[in-house]
Design brief:
alpha/beta; single chain; globular; 5-stranded mixed β-sheet
Length: about 160
């Protein structure tokens, strides 16, 4: 696929991931969203549900991977691309690796909790990575969310 066409597709699907992140924000969750795409079809989507489900594993990527595996009828997502608004954590990167996702695209880097803080070798060896798609919008959503938490009074 030609560079400009791929960039346009990446932006299109990252906007869908951003939409998922807004669903998380509406639910008072950390606003991270993800979609899994096979060809040009969304086969899985998710947003953070950690607080809602009281489950530390209910990250956007995990939700999207589970939905995609269910849709496609198998645990391997070799022909798929995962779009996520923020660099995956080490837990999610491990799941992405086990699922053998072909390509991972994210918007904002996570220098504090992103998987690259721990290891660059978590994904499947054939997985390719694209960083920085709609970076500004993804970063701004996270910045606004955490700034709003700092402005809230502490409950005793």
């Amino acid at each position: 696929m030609e560079g400009l066409e791929q960039q346009q597709l990446d932006e299109k699907f990252m906007r869908l991931a951003l939409n998922e992140a807004h669903h998380a924000l509406d639910a008072c969750e950390v606003p991270i969203g993800a979609v899994v795409v096979s060809g040009e079809t969304v086969v899985g989507r998710g947003h953070n549900l950690v607080e809602t489900l009281r489950d530390p594993t209910a990250h956007a990527e995990m939700q999207a991977l589970t939905a995609a595996a269910s849709t496609l009828g198998g645990k391997y997502l070799q022909g798929c691309t995962l779009y996520v608004t923020v660099e995956p954590c080490i837990m999610c990167a491990g799941a992405i690796g086990w699922a053998q996702v072909a390509r991972v695209v994210w918007g904002a880097d996570d220098p504090k909790k992103g998987y690259r803080c721990y290891s660059d070798g978590v994904f499947h060896p054939r997985t390719t990575i694209t960083r920085g798609v709609l970076r500004g919008e993804c970063e701004e959503l996270m910045t606004r969310f955490f700034a709003s938490l700092r402005r809230q009074p502490l409950v005793k």
